[in-house]
Structure formats: structure tokens, C-alpha cells
Amino acid sequence: MAGEVIVDALPYIDHGYDDVGVRESALAMVEEECRRYRPTKNYLDHLPLPATSPFETPLMVNEFERIQNRLPMETLSMKRYELPPPPSGKLGEVSAWQEAIENSMAQLEHQCVRSLNLELLLDYGTEAWKSYLEVFTAMQAKAQLQLQQLKKDIQDVNWQRKQAQTLAGERLRSLDAHWVLLVSKNYEIETECVELEKLVQAAREHIKTLGPTNANDTAPTPEHINGHAEEDISESNGNINSNSSASGDGDGDGDVENVEDVRGGDGDANGDGDGDDAAEDESSNE
């Protein structure tokens, strides 16, 4: 899409360009592309012609026409620097001599202008040249400043690009490691799933080898098991409740009597001799 930049290389973090055979492989790919590419003569027909008419002068138009017609270039005319006399057939004509005199006057004026320019150059040429050198030096200094600024901008752009690519490289490496970890986990999970499927298939095959069961040997359903269990639980609960109610009627008396019996039994069992000794002690005291 327009306005988007497709980045297909990160030279600050990519490696392997200096390896053996990489340059040769790249050159071979370029040569192969050049062999397969067949340029056409009119590959620029879809582009409009440049508008050069605003910049063309009559001299340029004539020269372009001469080049298009493949005509030879006209030689430099030296006629204005010559002082030819009138032709032999026109020596008696006044107009021919008048033309020759005008040509000589033009040549003389031209030489006067040249000598005047030389005198002006001798008088003011040194100062003019110094002024030109000063202007040229100032222009050179300004160009040097612009060049240094451009170099600094290029260096800043390269540094920013290097920093961005370094950060992107770290991010890519972390994402790559995370991707490898996820792929490894997925591979382990798939392996475990395959093993479980094998176990399930082996169990199914083993069940098939056992053969079908008889009708009398059918196992009880969970509903039947639950029903019997509930009946047994209810019966046991009823027995427990009846026993507890029977014991609850004589809690006050029966418990006390049992406790006294136990204590009495303990006293008889443990204190037969103790009771006699106590009676003997009382009689002796009397």
C-alpha cells in the first residue's frame, strides 16, 4: 500500500552476510535474474512524455530538429574575423566595397572592445578577483556547514535505526524463544495424547477379546445399587432410632443403677477385704 515501508532486513542484528558462499550465492541470483529478464523497447510507453517546451530556446529547437533529421553539425563560421575584399566580379561595384568597409569597421570595433576589456581587467581585475574569492570562500564555508549538518543527521538516523533494530532484535529473540517453548509444549501434549489414544485403543481391543457377557451375569445397574443401599441405610437408621428410644426411656434410672452396680461390683471385687478390715478396726476401737 502507498505510504507503507516494507522492512525485509535488519542489517544491525542480522548475521551471516560475511559467511563463505553468501556473496557468491547473491551474485548468482542476480545473474540468473538478468538472464531471465527480457527488456522491451517500449517499456516506458505507459509513462507520459516530459514537458520540455517551456525550457527550449529557438536554438535548441533547431538543434533538436537537426539531430532528429541526422544532419551534420554546422562548422564554426570565421567570416566575422576575416577582411575579404570584394569578389573579382564585383570590384567595380560600390555596394560590394561598402559591405567590405562595414565589415572592417565591425572588426576594428571588436578589437577596440577587447583592448578596453584588457585595460579594465588590469585596473580592477585584482580587486574583482579578491571579491570573487571572498564570496566563493563564504559559499564554501556555508556548504561545509550544510555538509556537516547532513552528516550529523545521517549519523543520528543510523543511530536511531540501530537502536530500533536492536530493540526489535531483542523482542524477536524473546518471541522466538517463547514460540519454541510453546511448540515444544504442544509437541509434548500431542505425544501424550497419542500415547493415551494408544492405551484407549488397546483397552478397547482387550475388551473385545473378552467376548460378550451372559444375560444372567449382567452387572447391577447403578440405580439398583443405589436402591438397595438406600433401603439398607433406612433399615439401619430405623434400628438405631428404636434402640436409642428404648434407652432414652430409662436414661435417668437405668444409668444410675448401672453405675451403682458397677461401683458396687467394683467395691465387692476390690473391697471385700477392705470392708472386713474396716469392721475390725471399728470393733477394736470400741
TrEMBL record:
**Where are the stretches annotated Disordered?**
210-286
- Bias class Low complexity marks the residues at 235-248
Query: Which keywords does the record carry?
Result: Coiled coil, mRNA processing, mRNA splicing, Nucleus, Spliceosome
- Native organism is Drosophila persimilis
The protein's predominant localisation is nucleus
Q: Tell me the protein's name.
A: Pre-mRNA-splicing factor SPF27
What GO biological process, any one, is recorded here? mRNA processing
What family classification does the UniProt entry report for this protein?
Belongs to the SPF27 family.
InterPro entries from the xrefs? SPF27
* Entry keyword rRNA processing: no
Its Gene Ontology cellular component terms are: catalytic step 2 spliceosome; precatalytic spliceosome; Prp19 complex
Its subcellular locations are: Nucleus
Q: What's the name of its gene?
A: Dper\GL23883
- Specify the taxonomic lineage: Eukaryota, Metazoa, Ecdysozoa, Arthropoda, Hexapoda
Q: Where is the composition biased (Acidic residues)?
A: 250-259, 269-286
Q: Which domain of life is it from?
A: Eukaryota
Residues in a coiled coil are 140-167
Q: Which Pfam families match?
A: BCAS2
